[in-house]
Inverse folding.
């Protein structure tokens, strides 16, 4: 990685062009539009040649870390390898040129893909029906909660407006609930890191719409009392929502449907290998149990039992439309290709290999990093800072460890989350990392633990080998410069 | 048997289990209740090789029909430059995570900063977020934002001339959020300012959403809207096609507070509806209520210019249930696509796109009227999309055109049909479409 300091606007010169379009031979011109409906002058966009533009963006890419350049031990993000064939498939001209409103008879292949992927996800999760329309995990949460509310409302049970969310949950859980018009009630964790069932029970009354759970939770711990929680929430008339952010731990081994969950989302950009793309596009399909199968958002893909033909239709009983069309179709194609590559044979190994890698790192570092919950973890676990130094006494924090890791060629783990600890370092390897990579990471983490004692300044001023040093975030927030 | 995405040898597995103190992989799930462990078969395909996967998709693709697209309705067949596709396939962009670690994410952060700049220049507003899912969800976020920006107001107004799917998505969000929604009927295929004024008088309106170009393709005259909305202490949002903003009056010029819409029209492939690119821009005074990621400029300890995610106190990972939105990501790669697209196009290229689309659309419009099968429904100006009243039932017309490989004449209710022409349609294609339609007249 090398520092490159230009913005595209700084390469711009009046009169340069980078486009390749036919000459305009038409008689009519947008200048014929009445003056008060026209823009005063052309927008001030860059004027650059194609080679200059391409080199600029490739230089920018050289300041980026990606799964293809190195290992991301990023908790709750499942940064697994993104297979190359998936990209080729999603650019298939037989799909990329399809207009979303084309009549069903001209898009049978696309609709069949939607139906096939839905049925595969059902099988992998134990749910009865899936919508592939949600665009991302948070969008899936919101959609799932709408389905939950729609279920209660459709039964005339309108006073269920509270949702229980564990204190260890991702920030999107309470935020999605709030957008969905639900009041968030927090349930505590036990010292062992799982939901405090004693704290939960008194909360369960007839105003509770349901509970949102991540299992394994954000500490990487399996909620061992899931059976009891499930029975109690259901007995109180509530529904169970499964946040699929951590599904990679269970893929091929445990199905949310079998644990009694009624609604769930999956992050295809986590568990199903589609690339994160620097923040998106992802996909957040939502699955439901049989009693909620009629409550999916519009549109739904249906198959005519007689003709075998697929079509798309609105679903009047559901919450409504939550997306312009039927989801991030290009992303769905990638997940499809991934499931086909895995197949029955390999899908059962995804969870176990991911869990193996996480426990291996945990056991290899717990003598140097504080491990607040020492039990078996699933796909991820949380350290609470370094063992031998403390932020208060030595001034070395989790942030310093994370930044120093960048110098060793690794991405930083997720830090300061979950909020249960002050110095959280949340580590999630995946099943696509080799033992050699994990060993190199472990070695780097141990070296950093040594440096924290021997050369603390090295950590406090890290990173040293990246294109830029620590940006001044306070300056960015107090004097916002949001455009060139 | 090995698998290309798993690096594990038997020896690796053994060594790792030894470190953990377990005998077998099954031991990794000893904390899971026995009755929850899944022992059945999965109804997914048997493992397939790359060759088999390719063949499967080729076969599936043959069940689709590629049509010449003469429809828009929120998804536009504009040209996708090769260089834009090449740049987004770059691994360092494609396989990167959300740029929380700014020191190793300057590539992503910098193109988002460029994207934000370009979107403010297109819309004529002060600030842009880092992008969102799609146009309709950006409209929904815009409407909830107006509620957050105004005090004690709980209703939003949207024009009936917006694309129906935009109204539907806004409606879904509002229904569950607890925000009232009124769809204001149109007048003469345009938003009805007087009808909006009446509703605004109630005093409970937080925001108003109108289209820049409406579902009939008509360029709306939004004169008077900003004054009417602002005097009711509400916010005006304009749903725009950003491609058109090279030539038509911008939301900023109309006095809007917010611009939203779908930037798919900036060269993103149709891809059966996604991934597309929602955008959301606003005036400076509302930036702290703007949902989604925002990138800002700052410097590092050596004084080098660099970029970070900023104003994060708005966001869900800090504010949880008090966040301005639940959104946690952007459509980053599509924002990159559009940033490269706009860099290549520049002001003259984007103008050319509009000239070609406008010229072709107006040529088709006149020629369709000349066939005698269509009548004009409005004399209002349009850009690349328009409606006509069809003398043949819309469904029949669409079906006949479909048989000849054209996706055209989308029904907009009654016998009103819409057409759209982009620079991707050649004069030959338009003439051929016309000859197919003329043949219908003779066989009518």
């Amino acid at each position: 990685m090398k520092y490159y300091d230009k913005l595209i606007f700084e390469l711009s010169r009046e009169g340069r062009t980078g486009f390749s379009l036919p000459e305009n031979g038409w008689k009519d011109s947008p200048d014929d539009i009445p003056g008060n409906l026209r823009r005063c002058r052309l927008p001030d966009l860059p004027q650059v040649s194609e080679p200059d533009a391409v080199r600029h963006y490739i230089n920018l890419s050289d300041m980026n870390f990606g799964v293809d350049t190195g290992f991301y031990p990023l908790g709750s993000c499942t940064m697994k390898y993104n297979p190359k064939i998936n990209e080729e498939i999603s650019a298939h001209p037989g799909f990329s040129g399809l207009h979303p409103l084309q009549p069903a008879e001209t898009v049978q292949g696309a609709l069949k893909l939607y139906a096939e992927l839905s049925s595969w996800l059902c099988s992998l999760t134990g749910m009865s029906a899936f919508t592939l329309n949600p665009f991302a995990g948070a969008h899936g949460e919101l959609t799932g909660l709408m389905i939950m509310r729609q279920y209660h409302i459709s039964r005339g049970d309108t006073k269920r407006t509270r949702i229980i969310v564990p204190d260890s949950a991702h920030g999107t859980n309470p935020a999605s609930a709030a957008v969905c018009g639900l009041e968030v009630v927090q349930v505590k964790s036990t010292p062992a890191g799982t939901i405090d069932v004693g704290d939960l029970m008194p909360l369960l009354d007839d105003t509770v719409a349901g509970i949102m759970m991540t299992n394994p939770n954000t500490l990487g711990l399996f909620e061992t009392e899931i059976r009891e929680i499930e029975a109690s929430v259901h007995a109180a008339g509530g529904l169970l929502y499964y946040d699929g952010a951590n599904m990679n731990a269970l893929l091929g081994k445990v199905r949310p449907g079998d644990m009694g969950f009624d609604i769930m989302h999956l992050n295809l950009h986590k568990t199903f290998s589609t690339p994160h793309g620097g923040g998106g596009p992802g996909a957040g399909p939502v699955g439901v149990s049989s009693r909620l199968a009629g409550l999916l958002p519009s549109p739904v893909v249906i198959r005519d039992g007689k003709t075998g033909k697929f079509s798309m239709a609105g679903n009047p009983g559901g919450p409504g439309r939550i997306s312009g069309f039927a989801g991030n179709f290009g992303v769905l194609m990638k997940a499809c290709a991934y499931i086909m590559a895995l197949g029955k044979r390999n899908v059962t190994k995804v969870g176990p290999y991911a869990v193996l890698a996480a426990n291996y790192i945990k056991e290899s570092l717990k003598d140097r990093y504080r491990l607040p919950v020492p039990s078996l973890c699933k796909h991820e676990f949380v350290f609470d800072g370094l063992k031998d130094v403390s932020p208060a006494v030595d001034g070395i924090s989790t942030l310093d460890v994370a930044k120093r890791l960048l110098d060793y060629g690794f991405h930083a783990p997720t830090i300061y989350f979950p909020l249960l600890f002050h110095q959280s370092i949340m580590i999630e390897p995946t099943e696509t990392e080799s033992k050699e990579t994990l060993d190199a990471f472990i070695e780097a983490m141990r070296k950093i633990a040594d440096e924290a004692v021997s050369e603390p300044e090295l950590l406090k001023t890290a990173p040293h080998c990246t294109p830029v040093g620590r940006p001044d975030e306070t300056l960015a927030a107090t004097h916002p410069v949001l455009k060139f | 048997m090995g698998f290309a995405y798993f690096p594990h040898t038997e020896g690796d597995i053994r060594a790792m289990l030894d470190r953990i103190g377990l005998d077998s992989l099954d031991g990794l799930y000893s904390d899971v209740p026995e009755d929850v462990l899944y022992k059945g078969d999965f109804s997914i395909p048997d493992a397939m090789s790359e060759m088999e996967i390719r063949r499967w998709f080729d076969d599936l693709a043959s069940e689709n029909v590629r049509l010449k697209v003469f429809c828009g309705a929120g998804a536009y067949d504009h040209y996708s430059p090769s260089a834009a596709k090449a740049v987004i396939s770059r691994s360092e962009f494609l396989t990167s995570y959300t740029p929380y670690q700014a020191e190793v994410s300057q590539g992503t952060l910098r193109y988002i900063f460029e994207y934000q700049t370009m979107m403010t220049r297109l819309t004529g507003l002060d600030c842009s977020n880092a992008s969102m899912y799609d146009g309709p969800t950006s409209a929904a976020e815009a409407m909830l934002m107006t509620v957050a920006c105004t005090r004690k107001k709980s209703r939003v107004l949207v024009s009936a001339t917006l694309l129906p799917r935009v109204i539907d998505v806004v409606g879904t969000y509002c229904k569950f959020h607890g925000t009232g929604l009124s769809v204001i009927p149109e007048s003469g295929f345009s938003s009805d300012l007087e009808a909006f004024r009446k509703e605004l008088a109630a005093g409970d309106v937080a925001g108003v959403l109108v289209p820049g170009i409406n579902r009939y393709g008509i360029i709306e005259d939004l004169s008077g809207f900003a004054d009417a909305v602002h005097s009711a202490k509400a916010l005006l949002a304009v749903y725009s096609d950003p491609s058109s903003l090279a030539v038509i009056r911008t939301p900023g010029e109309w006095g809007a507070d917010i611009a939203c819409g779908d930037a798919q029209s900036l060269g993103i492939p149709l891809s059966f509806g996604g991934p597309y690119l929602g955008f959301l821009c606003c005036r400076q005074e509302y930036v702290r209520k703007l949902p989604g990621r925002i990138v800002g400029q700052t410097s590092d300890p050596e004084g080098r210019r660099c970029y970070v995610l900023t104003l994060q106190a708005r966001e869900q990972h800090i504010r949880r249930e008090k966040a301005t939105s639940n959104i946690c990501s952007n459509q980053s790669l599509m924002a990159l696509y559009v940033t490269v697209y706009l860099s290549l196009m520049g002001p003259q290229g984007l103008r050319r796109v509009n000239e070609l689309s406008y010229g072709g659309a107006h040529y088709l419009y006149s020629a369709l009227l000349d066939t005698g099968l269509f009548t004009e429904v409005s004399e209002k100006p349009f850009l690349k999309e328009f409606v006509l009243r069809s003398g043949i039932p819309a469904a029949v017309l669409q079906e006949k055109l479909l048989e000849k490989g054209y996706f055209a004449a989308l029904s907009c209710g009654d016998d009103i049909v819409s057409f759209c022409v982009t620079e991707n349609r050649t004069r030959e294609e338009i003439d051929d479409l016309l000859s197919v339609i003329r043949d219908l007249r003779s066989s009518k």
Observations:
- Residues 193 and 225 of chain B are 7 Å apart (CA to CA).
